[in-house]
Amino acid sequence: MNATMPGDHDADAVIVGAGIAGLVAARELVASGVRVIVLEKGRGLGGRMATRRLGTAVCDHGAQFFTVRGRAFGTLVREAHDAGAVVEWCDGFTRATANGSGMLPPGDGHPRWRGTAGMTGLPKHLAAELDPACGEIRMAAKVTSLGVEGVDVIVSLEDGNRLRAAAAIVSSPVPQSLDLMEAGGMMPNAIDPDALRTLRAIDYDPCFTLMLVLDRQSLVPSPGGIQFEAEGPANGPIAWLADNQQKGISSVPSLTIHATAAFSREHFETPPDAVTELLLEAVAPWIDGPLASAVVERSLHRWKFAQPTTAVTEPLVAASTRPPIVCCGDAFGGAKVEGAASSGLAAARWVVRVLAGEA
């Protein structure tokens, strides 16, 4: 079905955010004949499916892996695997308390996947497969407001440009999405009141990610990941520890450390150097040798919206139906990578139906 809309629109649909939800939505819309512009404020694709170089090392510093449960996402992953973009990593990780006691071996039989060269592999594959005749991705394009004029969506950018579209999919973290709608004058009359109440109830935990380059192999057990107990007397500041060399994405030893939500909330405004020292002390048991000599490079990243703490069971929330404006992402219908992808797919299909007058 071709849902392309006539008129002087810059695109039939504008998508805010080039994370996994936004890119899956773009893929589905383009396949339905909808002209799409994806706007990404950063310089890299993937959102929290993020990979970064630190010297000669490569570190995944957002989402660390993904699983496949549903058929639609499974089809997408198989296609990406056939294209060389993703591979299976393992079937589980070591579990431990913060002090290293009570360690349990990895393996529950369910595959964990990763990008071949880092977690950006899947987003980059989706972007590369997008038909440029119908789908455009604009990087470093920061949206400042999203509003409504008549039956059109108006998207304003930091560079002063404005885009007019028949529909919008907003895949950024929900508090940021609401800020854009408020800046565009949608509050309170242009947004569905029930949708507004639902969206305002969604919240997120922050997360500190510390990346380390080592001068020797780490002491992290195979297959290169440890999930730490979230509660208990031996609980510490670390939730996750990965060895990127064992993972298969870095040619030199490097670690990715995710702090717990509680630690990240408590120290969110703490000076970065102090946070780094606290996490280094906690990760020391998995580094071979004195920290002063074994750690050759370090970098701390602060994710403000790392993990939804409150979410909705539905895969999307329609902020408006005339014009169609819908919110999606990992806070809808199930967290993690697959949940975000499924949410983007559902949002795109909803937009196609609304543009075609079927919803």
Keywords:
six-stranded mixed sheet; 10 helices; Polyamine Oxidase, Chain A, domain 2; 359 residues; FAD/NAD(P)-binding domain; disordered N terminus; 2 domains
Structural overview:
The chain is of the alpha/beta class. The protein is 27% helix and 30% strand. It contains ten helices and 18 strands. Strands 1, 2, 8, 9, 10, 11, 17 and 18 form an eight-stranded mixed sheet that branches. A six-stranded mixed sheet has the order 6-13-14-15-12-16. A two-stranded antiparallel sheet has the order 3-4. The protein is globular, with a radius of gyration of 21 Å.
Brief overview:
With 359 residues, the protein is of the alpha/beta class. It is 27% helix and 30% strand.
Number of domains: 2
CATH topology of the largest domain: Polyamine Oxidase, Chain A, domain 2
Mean pLDDT, to the nearest integer, reads: 93
Based on CA atoms alone, the radius of gyration comes out at: 21 Å
Count of helical stretches: 10
User: Percentage of helical residues?
Assistant: 25-40%
Main sheet makeup: 8 strands, mixed
Element order, helices and strands? EHEEEHEEEHEEEEHHEEEHEHHHEEEH
What is the top-level CATH class of the largest domain?
Answer: Alpha Beta
Alpha-carbon distance between the two ends: 15 Å
Can you count the beta strands?
Answer: 18
CATH architectural category of the largest domain: Alpha-Beta Complex
β-sheet strand percentage: 25-35%
**Structural class determined from secondary elements:** alpha/beta
Outline: globular
